[in-house]
Structure formats: structure tokens, C-alpha cells
Amino acid sequence: MPEDEAKFWEQTYVSGDYREHWEYEVPSQELVAAMATDLAPSDGTALDIGCGAGRESVFLAECSLKTIGVDISPKALEIGTERTQAAATDVDFRRGSFFDLPVADASVDFINDRGALHLVGEDDRPQFAAEVARVLKPGGVMFLRGANEEETKEHFTAISADSVDRHSPSTAFSRGPILPIKPISDSGALRANLVVLRKLKND
User: Fold this and answer.
1) How many CA atoms lie within 13 A of 11 on its CB side?
2) Whole-angstrom Cα distance, residue 150 to residue 181?
3) What pairs with residue 141 in β-bridges?
4) Could you give the CA distance from residue 168 to residue 145 in angstroms, rounded to a whole number?
5) What does the pLDDT look like over 158-185, one tens digit per residue?
6) In the structure, what pLDDT confidence band is assigned to residue 7 with cuts at 50, 70 and 90?
7) N or C terminus: fewer CB in 10 A for the chain?
């Protein structure tokens, strides 16, 4: 990630501006539903990619998952750590980039992505997908949500079937349907898509 982008995200958390855009008081209801359906093993390892202030990282830990939260902003990770302590649970917060995750190969059962990939342009998505494939165990799941085509504007790159299939090939992943959702933050809702990807097991 370019240094100016890293500075932007850090300033957003230092100033508190994140609360006006994507902060949310409770974990997203689609993630709650995913945990209710046992999409991730209860004794497994979860990675919250682009975890921000850690709201969903804390929830995953409360679901008995060994949880790693990765974000580029030290201030975001500081806020996440405070939330973890308040919830009396444990999250392993690590500073890092989408493109160079500080996570061991084939060590993760479940990746939570709430609005990370839609910040990545098409040219950089192959590297993002390669990192996801590297850290996921065979049979592991990526739970992906991001802006749809109507919400792209100048801020996002849509999560679409074409893009997902192009960067997450069927030789490495199986893909569920692209489903419309409206992830809700304290400031409102975003028209988005949800998809579940599963890394294929070795023969």
C-alpha cells in the first residue's frame, strides 16, 4: 500500500472521522448469520482482513475462534485492542497490508472481509487474491462483502461475479452465488454484494 494511503487511514482513526463513515455498534448481521450456520469451525483460526477498529474481530473471538486482525493503521489496532480488553476476550492484532499479510501459509480457516477488497483496484486484485490463497487452509472459507456496481463511484471497485472469477480462478476456489445485501454502519447503509469463496482441497 502506498505510504500516502497508509497515512490517510491512520489520520482517519486518529481524528475519529471513521465514526462518521463505517463505524458500527454491533457486528454486521450477515457475519452473525454466518457464524450461526457454522461457516467457520468453532475451534478454528479466523483472519479479519482490514479489521479497522476491531468490532468484528472481537465478535469472532467471542465465537471461540482464534482471531487475527490485520490493518495498516496503528491507531485502529489500538482501538481494537481496547475493545478486546473491554470484552474480556483475545484478538491477535497485527499491522500489515492486504498485499503482504503477516500471517503464516495455510494457517487460517476463515477470512472475514467487510469492505477490504472493494478498496483494491482491478490491477492489484491478483496480488490480494494470491495472499488470500496463501494464508487459507485447503477447505478454508473467505466471507466477502463489498460495494456493488451501483456504489463504485470514485471510492470503490465493485465486487462482481466477473471480477471474483477472474482473480479467484475455479482451479483454486469454489464460489457461491453473488448475493445482494446492505451492510449497515452507524452512518447508514451501502448497496453491496456478498459471496462465499472456499479454497479447494488438495487431491
Assistant:
1) 6
2) 12
3) 110, 198
4) 15
5) 999 999 999 988 889 999 999 999 877 6
6) very high
7) C
> In degrees rounded to 5, what are phi and psi of residue 12?
-60, -40
Average pLDDT, the chain: 91
47, 107 in Cβ contact below 8 A? no
pLDDT (average), residues 129-158 = 90
Determine contact, residues 50/71, Cβ cutoff 8 Å.
Answer: yes
Q: Is 46 exposed, middle or buried (0-12, 13-18, 19+ CB in 10 A)?
A: buried
Q: What is the pLDDT of residue 1?
A: 57
What confidence tier does 44 reach under pLDDT thresholds 50, 70, 90? very high
What are the cell numbers at 105? Answer: 501459509
